[in-house]
Amino acid sequence: MVLISTHETRAFLFSTLLIAQLFWMARADVHFYDFILKETKVTKLCETKSIMTVNDSFPGPTIKVHKGDTVYVNVNNRGDYGVTLHWHGVKQPRNPWSDGPEFITQCAIMPGTNFTYEVIFSDEEGTLWWHAHSSWTRATVHGAIVISPESGKSYPFSEPDDDKVIMIAAWYMGDLKELVDEAMIEGKDLPHSDGYTINGELGDFCNCSQVTTHGWYVDYGKTYLLRIVNAVVNAELFFAIADHNLTVVGMDGGYVKPIVTTCIMISPGQTMDVLLTANQPLGRYYIATRQYSSEDAEVTGFDHSIGSAILQYRGNYSLPSPPVFPNATLPLYLDFGAALRFTNQLRSLASEDHPVDVPGDVSTKMFITVSMGEIYCPNSSCTSVSGNKLGSSLNNVSWVNPSLDVLSAYYRNLSGSYTADFPDWPPSMYNFTGDDLPDSVDMTYQGTKVKVLNYNETVEIVFQGTNVLKSSMNHPMHVHGHNFYVVGTGHGNFDSKMDPRTYNLVDPPHVNTFGVPKNGWLAIRFTANNPGVWFWHCHLDRHMSWGMDMAFIVKDGGTLETSLRPPPAYMPPCMDMGSYDISMQTSSIDHVEMQQL
C-alpha cells in the first residue's frame, strides 16, 4: 500500500478523482427510488397471511436504468424486523457499503429506521435483480433490474418490439420466518415451498389460484425480450412456453451466444434474457415452470407444484379451453440430461463490442469442497436423528455470522469479528463423490473465516461437489462484487492433470451465479479488481443458512481509484464496538487517511 505523504497531495489526488467521477456521472443518469418495507396481507393457496413487501407489491418494483447509471434507493423499514437489501449482480465498484448482505457488509435496517443505498452500475447490461439479504426475507422482498444499453447504443441482436419481466418466486404456507427460526434452533430440515409464482401468482394448477393467474397479451408476428429471474429461495427450475421456441441471448447482466431451445434450466439467483417470437396460431398458451431436483431419486420431499401463467394472442377468435400446455417441452423433475444439455451450451458472446478477458496466468489457485454435513450439538435442543445439527460447508468450514459485519471490522481494523485464514484446500482428500464415504467426513466445524486477495490478483477456484451424507446435488454458487468465467465443469472428482486440458478459455460464460453439478466439479476464474469485502455463497438459502458461505477481502490497489471508498455518513448500527480490539495495520492507516480527505 502506498501511503499519501502530504495533505496537499492527498487533496489534489482526491479532487482529481472527484472531478473524474463527476465527469463520468455527467455522462450517465442518476435515479431515485423510495422503498417502503411493510407487512401486507395476501391470500394465496386458500390462506390469508401477512408478508413483508416493498411498496405493498409482490414482487416489488422494477428498477430501470441504462448501463453506467447510478441509483439511490431510500429504504424505510416499517416492518416488524430488521432487513437488508442486495443488488444481485451489480458489482458496486469500490462500494461494498451498499452491497447489502447482512453481517458481511452491514447490519440490518431496523424497524422504524431508514438507510439509503447507492447502487453504482458499471459494465452490467441486460437483466439483474434486487432482493432482501437477511434470513429468508427475500422470498417476498425482491424485484427486477432492467439495464438497457447506453444511450445511442443498441442490443447485439435485432431490436425487440417489447420486453416482459418474468419473476419466478417460491410461496410458503404459514409464517416463514418463524418456521426458519425454529428449524435453525432445532437443527432440523428447513421449510420446503408450497408453490411457485410467476409475477406474483401461482396459476391454474394450484388451489384457490385459477382466478388470479397472471396473463400476458402478445401480438402475432412481434418479437419480445423476456427478462426471466429465478427469485425462488431453494430450487432450480425448468421453464417453457407451450409451442414456442426460446432464444437465450443474455445471462446475469451480460450477453451470450444465442441458444435456440424449447426450455431453459435456471438456478436461483440467475437471470436470463430470452427472445420469443409470437408466431403460433392465435390462442392461449401456458407459460410453465417446475422444479429440477438434482438430488437422488429417493428424495421426494420437494415442491412438486407447477407454477403457470398464460400467454394470450390478441385478436378476434374463439378461445380454446384450456390453454395449450408444454407437455412435450417442459422436462420432468429429475431430468438431469435436460438440465445438462442446456447449461453445456452457454457461451459468452465474445464479440468485438462485448469481449471476454479470461485470466490466463493464474496467481492463486483454490480447491473448495462443497458439502452437506453435521455440526455438533452441545445440548438436547437438536431434534435430528443423529442428535446433531444439519450443516453445510466450504472446505469443511461452516460459516457463522459475526455480530459486527466483516466490512466494518476490516475497514476499522477491529479484531474478533473474523479470521483471515479460510483454507485454500480441504482438510483431507478422499473420494469426494463416492457412495460409501467414511463417517469421519460427516462432521464440519464452524468459523467466520475469510480469504484475503491482493488487488488484481488472478484467481482460479475449483469447486468440488461431494456425496457426504449421500446428499450430493447441484449447488448454484454466487459471488458478490465480481463476475467469474466458467472455464470448466465435469462429473466425478476433479483431475488436476487431465481436466484443465478441457478448459474453455475462448468464450466461457461470464456470470455471477453458476451450479456446481451433482457429484461433479466447477472451475472458475476471475480477477480480484474490486476492493472491499465480498460474499460468496450457495444461492440455495437452506444451504446458505446452514453455512455454505465464505467472504473474501480484496485489498486496496495503491491509488485512490483502486481503493475502497470511505463509508457513507450513516450505516445501520450493529452493536457496542467496545467488545472488539483495535489492531492497526498498514491498510487501516490508508483507509483513515482517505476518510479524512
UniProtKB/TrEMBL annotation:
* Keywords noted in UniProt: Apoplast, Copper, Glycoprotein, Lignin degradation, Metal-binding, Oxidoreductase, Repeat, Secreted, Signal
User: Main subcellular localization, coarse class?
Assistant: secreted
> Which reaction is this enzyme known to catalyze?
4 hydroquinone + O2 = 4 benzosemiquinone + 2 H2O
UniProt cofactor note: Binds 4 Cu cations per monomer.
What the entry lists under Gene3D superfamilies is as follows:
Cupredoxins - blue copper proteins
- Identify the Pfam families for this entry: Cu-oxidase (PF00394), Cu-oxidase_2 (PF07731), Cu-oxidase_3 (PF07732)
Which prosthetic group or cofactor does it need? Cu cation
Give start-end of the signal peptide: 1-28
Q: What is its EC number?
A: 1.10.3.2
**Where is the Plastocyanin-like domain positioned along the sequence?**
38-150, 163-316, 423-556
Where is the protein situated, by its record's location annotation?
Secreted, Extracellular space, Apoplast
Family under the similarity heading: Belongs to the multicopper oxidase family.
Function field: Lignin degradation and detoxification of lignin-derived products.
Q: Which NCBIfam families does this chain map to?
A: laccase (TIGR03389)
Q: Supply the name of the protein.
A: Laccase
Q: Which organism is it from?
A: Rhodamnia argentea
